[in-house]
Every structure is written in C-alpha cells, then in structure tokens.
Amino acid sequence: MLRQIRYFQSVVRNNSFSEAAEECHISQSAISQQIKVLENELGFPLLERNSRKFVLTPAGEHFYKKSLVLIADYEQMCSEAAKIARGDEAVLKIGYLRSHNSPEVHQTLEEFSAKYPRVDLQLLYGNHEDLFQLLRTGGADLVLNDQRRAFSDEYVNLILTVNKMYIELAARNPVAELPSVTVGELKNIPCILVASKKQQTTEREFYHTVIGIQSEILYAENLEEARMMVISGRGFLPVEGSGPAMTLGTAIRRVPLYRGEEQISRNYCLFWKKDNSGYYVEEFADILKSKFE
Description:
The chain is α/β, with parallel strands linked by helices. The chain contains nine helices and 14 strands. It has helices at 2-14, 17-24, 28-42, 58-86, 103-115, 128-137, 200-211, 223-231, 279-292, and strands at 47-50, 53-56, 90-97, 119-126, 142-146, 155-170, 181-182, 191-194, 217-220, 237-241, 247-248, 252-259, 262-263, 265-273. It is elongated.
C-alpha cells in the first residue's frame, strides 16, 4: 500500500496521470491501475474521473492531506533507524541566547543542514550563564554568546562581530525622538530584561554594574513577551545589533545607547572547547564566520 500511496500523491501533486507516471518511472496504465487497487483496498473512491480529467473526492482530499504527514513520518522513522543501524549518527549541540535574533545564524543553520543532512543540529536556548554552564560541562559543543568575562585559554574564542547597544521603547515615548540616549537619562524608565527566574539576579547585577543601568528592572521570559511589554509602554528593552538606529514597525523605536560620549558595544562570539574541535564544529564555525564577514 505504501508504494500505491506514493503513486496517488504523485498523481495529485502533478494533477496528471501521465506526468505522475513519468515521475514514478512506470507506464500511465500501470499507475492508473495501482490507484484503482488502492481505492479497492480502502473501500472508497479517491478520485472522480471524467474522460482525461479527474478531481479529488472529499474522502480523497482528506486521505491525500493525511497521507503527506504519514509518508513524512515514515521517511523520518526510516532515516533515524538507518542512522542507528549504521552507528553513524552525529549530533551538533549549539547554545543560543534566548534574547538574540541573528539572521547570520539562521543562514548558517540552513547552509550547514543542506551540506550535512545526516548531522542532527540541536539548538539549546538560555541566558549568558546558562550557555556558559552548558559549554563548561559539555552540554553544548558550540555556544553563541556575548563576551561577559575574560577569554580563557581552555576555549576557542572567536569574535564574530562587535555589536553596538541600543534600547527599544514605545514609539510614542518622547525619548524615542532622541538621536541617542545615555544610561543616566533612562534612570526613570524601567528596564526590561529577558531572563529565566533562576537568572534574574545575575542579569540584574550585570546590567547594573557593567552596563550602568540605574532604573527599576522588569523581567520577561522571552523576546516576544519583552517587546509586548515595550509596546504597552512598561519600559525599555536593551538590545544589541550592528546596524544604525531603526524603526521596528510603527510601535517600537530603536535608539543608540551611550555611556558618556561613546556608544556601548559588546563582542559577540562563538565559543568551543579546544579539546572538542572536531570536523563538524570547525565547519560550522567557518560557515558562521563567513556570514558575518
């Protein structure tokens, strides 16, 4: 029945028995016969035939949609079983900041997956300290993170880019009209941080002592929640990027964040242990580095 379902899907996808037959490398009469065998086995018609044309019956339309999921699940199951049988399953675990959104990372994941489809990429989300812990304990092979401590000789510390800091706040806030803003000028506006409950203390201390934020701290579980809080006027969200000030839709404005006369900047890095510099690790690093270049 599996082969017959594939034939049926090909007929529907091509909207043609002749093109489906060519795609499946069998004769048109043979593929037509196989569809009839499938209908007989199911006990109901899938297609309404009219001369050389056909339309799906309501049951056929339902069966077609469900069969796509069925075949996809089947192929995934076979792929996973084959990896286990060969013993060649490879997994690359990548730590990624919960509050970050990088098109370069998305492009790298897409290119790497196309080049190495048998490598299972696992994204592990967390805050800065979560990711450092994953890297230190071997829970992640690679970690994309901002530099918050001195580089260690135990790791490869690849600086991908230097990110300038901005704040995002509601466009209706008068501060949004400024060409730039200092941390001191934000002391009366709450600061919104993306942090899990266990990381709230660490994040608060970092933004108070290192960045110099003096205002009240509010927390969000993820970036989407944080931006909803910004839109509602509850505070500002510190973010990083490499581009100039920009407008995010009509509700949020992004303004450069300064300390004194200079815009605050942070190194955005890729970290991995030197004793874990396997082929896939270095290949992923090379692709990612090329995206930032």
